[in-house]
Amino acid sequence: MILPRHYFTLLLLFLCCNFVTFAQFDAKKDIELLSKDEIHQRVNDLSDECWRLREINPDSAVLFGEEALQIATRYNLKKELPRIYGFLSVVKLHYQYKTKESLPYLHAALEHSLRQKDSVQLAYSYNNLGDLYLLTGNIPLSLKFSEYSLDIFTKLGNSVGQSYSNVNVGLVYRAKKDYKLALDYFNRAKKILANEKNELGVGSVLLELARTYEEKGDMDVAMVYYQRAYNKSQISMNVRYAAFCLNGMANIFYFQKEYEKAFEFYQNSVKLNKQRNHNFGLIDDYIGIAFVYAQQSKRAEGEACLRESLEIAKSLNLNAKILKVYNSYATFYQILNDFQKATESYNAFLAQNDSIFSIQQFEIINEMQNRFSMRQTLSDTEKELESRKFQEMYMVVIIILMLIIVIVLFWRFYSHRKINRKLARINKTKDKLFSVISHDLKNPFNTLIGFSELLLGEVREGQYENVVEFTNYIHQSSTEGLKLLNNLLDWSRAQIGAIAFNPRSLVINDLFDELNSSFDSEFRKYKVELKFHNSIEEELKADSDILRTILRNLISNAIKYTNEGGLIQLDAIKEKSFVKITVKDDGTGMPKDIQDRLFDVTKTTNSIRGVHDEQGTGLGLSICTELIRIHNGTIRVESEVGNGSTFEIKFPFVR
Predict the structure, then answer these.
(1) Is the C or the N end of the chain the one with fewer CB within 10 Å?
(2) Helices 279-295 and 239-255: crossing angle, nearest 10°?
(3) Separation of alpha carbons 113 and 107, rounded Å
(4) CATH superfamily of this structure's domain 119-197
(5) Domain residue ranges of the chain, discontinuous segments joined by +
(6) Who contacts 516 (Cβ-Cβ below 8 Å, separation ≥6)?
(7) Closest alpha carbon to 557 in 534, 584, 537
(8) pLDDT digits over 320-331, tens only?
(9) Is 532 helix (H, G, I), strand (E, B) or coil?
């Protein structure tokens, strides 16, 4: 059986409704599966898409904005509400020109901005209210809200917001015919947007500058700005701004009585405005075309254009544009020399102006009531903010005090630990000093006393055959005692910081010659060969006393552990920006465990007896460690048992 056509249509509608319902249910189900962060991101994405589509497709922009609003409301994302309401209000006001529909969104944006203490969105809300009242022709309220917005953005240091507010204030002053102030505010906005590299924003300000110069009567300047603005609109692909620019250039061609060119530009503007469903722009286009028809005495065509323009202005409920159309009727009939019609049209304009003035008065009274309510809300908000501010200040003070206490405690802990380390080091130094005094320094004096008593007995008995031998022992003990005493004094001075770094001009060869002379007798005595090799010919800045003491100790050490016929070699070379001096012997060497603690002044190292049965104190290398540190250098050793040792000192080369 074949169904009648209307039954088929009903069935199709039923299926479509079920499909939409199912799709919405499925979308809600998908949302519920998302995490809180993902829902938040979804709302942001929808809001951004609403803003992106505002010029290209305002209807789609509203759909995205409404969906974002529903999700934000459903999931209590209160902080997102001021921004979403603000976007929707702008789309409704500036891109759909639905002033009545935009009003609830504007007030909602303002209310939620106050509740969330969102100063940025509050400033945008004031700015958008200024736009609304400018479009409806209420100049006093438009100026008031635009100035509120500019004041907040300036206090916040929000440069983008300041540019928008400067444009709005400029538009108000242009409506008041104060072109100097208008141009001043537009130029401020242009400078900010240029610094922000906002090409679309710069293009919109160039358009307003062009319109201002056009109203002012500077047509040549206006044309230049229109052309620059048109170029910017082409780059940013903003069709609406391009249409505005074409309309402005057409006005200038009309003023210059180039009617055919004016007609062409008006028609091109109409095409672009129809392409974007931009009825607001069509109002001025049809007025311009009507004037061209009047110049060509095409009365019927011109009246048709004015009627179309008036219908659009009334449908958009734009008082300023309605007045402009009524005034244009009077001008149109004046061009046609129909003064009766011109007078009737002018009277209609005056009547409409009175009606709109009454509406404005009502709006002002209503706005005063809204402002009273708003002030109350603001007062409560400010009290809450003040209370929160004091709480935050108290928290900051408490945190600062806690930080000070922590820093003081840490400083005391660090100081005590540093003092304890110093005390431990002093105690070890004291123990080492007493050990040397009680043991090592005592031995040479015991030898002196013993051999001097034997020598005295031999002399009394008149036996002189052992005198030379005993005298040699006494001399050797005295020499060893003096060396030990000098080392002990040097080490003590280094420990208490009494040795100062005093660099002077030094030639390495002179230092090596001095060392060779001072150790000559010992080399002959122990039958050890000493060789010097220096590759540094130039003078350098160094402390010769410190280097002499270090090298003297290292050479003494090498002699102590080198057998008869052995070789001790000193080498000095320049390595990058350092001087490196090595003392190498082919003596007995030392095991790895002694090397590891050789230069650690906090560890005790028992000195190994020399090849001539000398007993050391370990002070010599301690002195070398302290002195090379004072000279901003380092010391290290390489040694192997049975294969000798190589001591290396390294310090900065300074000329």
Answers:
(1) N
(2) 20
(3) 10
(4) Tetratricopeptide repeat domain (1.25.40.10)
(5) 33-117, 119-197, 386-440, 500-604+614-655
(6) 530, 532
(7) 584
(8) 788 888 888 888
(9) strand
How far, in Å, CA of 526 to CA of 644, rounded?
17
Distances (CA, A) of 522 to 255, 563, 564, 609: 117, 13, 12, 18
Asked whether the beta carbons of 576 and 612 are under 8 A apart, the reply is no
List the end-to-end C-alpha distance of the chain, in Å, as a whole number. Answer: 115
**Per-residue pLDDT tens for 19-70?**
444 444 444 545 566 788 888 899 999 999 998 888 788 889 999 999 999 9
Q: Using one digit for the tens of pLDDT, what is the confidence trace for 464-497?
A: 677 777 677 677 667 666 666 666 666 566 555 5
Between 3.30.1240.10, 3.90.190.20, 3.30.565.10, 2.40.110.10, what CATH number should domain 500-604+614-655 receive?
3.30.565.10
The answer to whether the pTM exceeds 0.85 is no
- Counted residue by residue, the chain has a size of 655
d(CA 249, CA 256): 11
Q: Taking the mean position of all CA atoms in its chain, how far away is CA 608?
A: 62
Three-state DSSP class for residue 456: helix
**Are 101 and 109 a contacting pair, CB within 8 Å?**
no
pLDDT tens figures, 541-575: 998 888 888 888 888 888 888 888 899 999 999 98
Decide: 598 and 624 in contact? Cβ < 8 Å.
no
